[in-house]
Amino acid sequence: MSRQPFVKFIPLAVMVAFLSYGCAKETPKQPTAAKPVAAQELKKEATVYKGKIVGKSNKAKTISISVGKGDKAKTKMVKFDDNTKGVEYAKKEAAAIINWEQRGTDQYATVIKPKLAKLPKGVTEIKTDELFNLLESGTALTLIDARPDSRYHQAHIPGALNVPVPKLKKMKAAVLPEDKDKLLIFYCGGPT
Question: What is the mean pLDDT of each run of 10 residues along the chain (192 residues)?
């Protein structure tokens, strides 16, 4: 028997194979895996909230802060832990700056600072020791206690006038000394 009859069928068999299976089979694409959570946690981005503290829970270890003004104000909540610095500044109604970082799905406060008012041009901060020295030396000055009446009557620096902030806003210039070269010092009960 000769091989020639089988040789005639080889091109036909190859053609049927190509038609049935194609030249090369496509391998199904494997889905790409999402970045592992650990890798996402390594890329922690610190962020800052500035506003008024609206609540604090020592039990849940959370702080709520109102961020923004007017209709655009939103309440944000951050968690805190034993590593959070400045938790003592997270008092209800106090203005604060909270630096936080993302840990998984939660925001954790890293540092909390009081948000201090910026002093107007020409106004400087005076330290307690400096005020004491001015009072001891008899320097001519006007000392104004800007705390509420009840706090003033509990205790105040001798010679201080009591002009709470709401009253000051109404009175404005009536409280200020006539002599514009006279030292004018305000004090209150908190970090303002």
Answer: 59 59 55 52 66 94 92 93 94 92 95 84 85 92 88 91 81 69 82 46
- Compute the distance between CA of residue 182 and CA of residue 126 in angstroms, rounded to an integer: 15
Which residues of the chain are in CATH 2.40.50.320 domains? 44-114
Angstrom distance (rounded) from CA 50 to CA 71:
16
Tell me if the domain spanning 128-187 has CATH number 3.40.250.10.
yes
The domain at 44-114 falls in which architecture?
Beta Barrel (2.40)
Sequence letter at residue 80: F
pLDDT at 39: 45
Q: What value, to the nearest 5°, has the Cα angle with vertex 92 and ends 89 and 98?
A: 45
Does residue 67 contact residue 49 with C-beta atoms inside 8 Å? yes
Q: How far apart are CA 92 and CA 115, in angstroms?
A: 13
| pTM to 2 decimal places | 0.47
Which helix (H) or strand (E) is 169 found in, with range? Answer: helix 165-171
